[in-house]
Structures are given as structure tokens and as C-alpha cells.
Design brief:
Strands 1-2-3-4 form a 4-stranded antiparallel sheet, with helices on one face. A 3-stranded antiparallel sheet has the order 5-6-7, covered by helices on one side. Helix 1 runs antiparallel to helix 2. By secondary structure, it is an alpha+beta fold. It is built from 3 helices and 7 strands; from the N terminus they run E-H-H-E-E-E-E-E-E-H. It is about 40% helix and about 25% strand. The protein folds into 2 domains: about 90 residues, PH-domain like, CATH 2.30.29; about 50 residues.
Length: about 160
């Protein structure tokens, strides 16, 4: 029988970019764009300007590529975990590449950049010569919420 005790983190958050368009929504948008391009395409084809139809198809293809690239960026995320003696940040990019960073909660400084309206524009972890941006893909409101919760937890970890 094992009496292994697992410590709970003081703070844990998974930061993900907000994506309003689902894969199903992307298909609907592409179908609508294709349908809207089809009507003038038929008119141009009947009028004898058949090369225009190809360019309208390229427009649909360009929109599909742009949406695909944008949705691929939504796979990135960051995991921030604060333990009593360590701060761990795991960054995963859209391609699946991982970067694990570790800090001491007593040596790290949590820096918040604000604009002239006092909105949060950037979040940084700074330890000696290292300066790491976190939550770059978050909205200003999400950055504000995260900074309050994380700042409070970091102060508690130092006490």
C-alpha cells in the first residue's frame, strides 16, 4: 500500500486563444462565399467573360486558405502552474512544438504593460536576464482577469 501524497498547485491556468469560428462554421462560410461567387460567375460566363469565373474561384480558394491558417493558430496554448516552490510555464505552439520554462516564485517578477486607458496590453515574467511573454493571444479583458488571479496567487506563494 502506498501513501503517496500529491501536492496541489497554488494556481493553475490553461490559456487558449479565443476562436469564434468552429470547423463547421468554416464550412458554412466557404459554402456561402462559393454560392455568392457562383451567381455573378454564371452571369459572366453567359456574357462570354468566362475567365472571370476562374478568378472568382481563386477568391474562394484564398478565403479558404486564410480561414484554415487562422484556425490552425487556434491550436496554440499555454499552461501556467504555480507550486509552493516553483512556477512552471509550458508553451505549445500551433504546430505542436513545446517549450517548458521554470522559474522560482521568489525571484520572478510579474510585469503588466498597460496602455493610456489602463487596459492590459502585455503580460511578462521576468527573472534576471530572461523576459518571457505570456498570454500574447488573449484579449485585453482576458489579460486583465488572468493578471488579477495570477498576481494574487504569486503574492500568496511568496508569503
Amino acid at each position: 500500500m502506498s501513501t503517496k501524497i500529491q501536492a496541489k498547485p497554488l494556481f493553475a491556468a490553461t490559456l487558449t486563444p479565443r476562436r469564434s469560428l468552429t470547423p463547421r462554421g468554416k464550412r458554412v462560410v466557404i459554402a456561402l462565399v462559393a454560392a455568392l461567387a457562383l451567381v455573378p460567375g454564371i452571369i459572366f460566363y453567359v456574357a462570354g467573360a468566362w475567365p472571370v469565373v476562374g478568378f472568382m474561384g481563386l477568391d474562394v480558394l484564398a478565403i479558404w486558405i486564410a480561414l484554415t491558417v487562422s484556425m490552425r493558430g487556434g491550436r496554440a496554448y499555454e499552461v501556467v502552474t504555480l507550486w509552493p516552490g516553483a512556477l512552471e510555464v509550458k508553451k505549445v505552439d500551433a504546430k505542436g512544438g513545446e517549450e517548458a520554462l521554470s522559474f522560482s516564485p521568489f525571484n520572478v517578477r510579474f510585469v503588466i504593460d498597460r496602455d493610456f486607458n489602463e487596459r492590459v496590453t502585455g503580460l511578462w515574467l521576468r527573472e534576471q536576464q530572461r523576459r518571457i511573454a505570456i498570454g500574447t493571444f488573449l484579449s485585453p479583458d482576458d489579460k486583465q482577469s488572468f493578471s488579477k488571479a495570477f498576481g494574487t496567487a504569486l503574492r500568496k506563494a511568496r508569503a
